[in-house]
Amino acid sequence: MRISNTLSHAMKVSSTGLYAERTRMDVISSNIANAHSMKIGNADPYRRKDVALSGGPDGVKVTRIVEDRSAFRIVNDPNNPNADGQGNVTYSNVDPLIEMVNMIGASRAYEANVAAFNSTKGMIRAALQIGRI
Q: Can you give the pTM of this predicted structure?
């Protein structure tokens, strides 16, 4: 395999990582924005979502976005107009603290992919400079 193909492949792999982590950050942002949604009438509150990823020799793929089927949070608040007959309010299953930790992880992974991409770009630039001499 020629060096240009190897470096090109490295950039492609980094770009798939960038796309995957950007998708994760978008989903996490949506989770945080809907963390305090509640059941209104027969409509369930927002259900937390997560990104399913798969990796291979050509990089990372977003295989699907899945709903977290864990139980909703129940809070006793009889003064809430959306409370049920027992005074309980059903809230989303999103834990903002966990989502913030996930956001930090996704952000750091995104930054690592940017660094790898830029490093590869620098290697290509250096190879082109060597070719000029």
A: 0.85
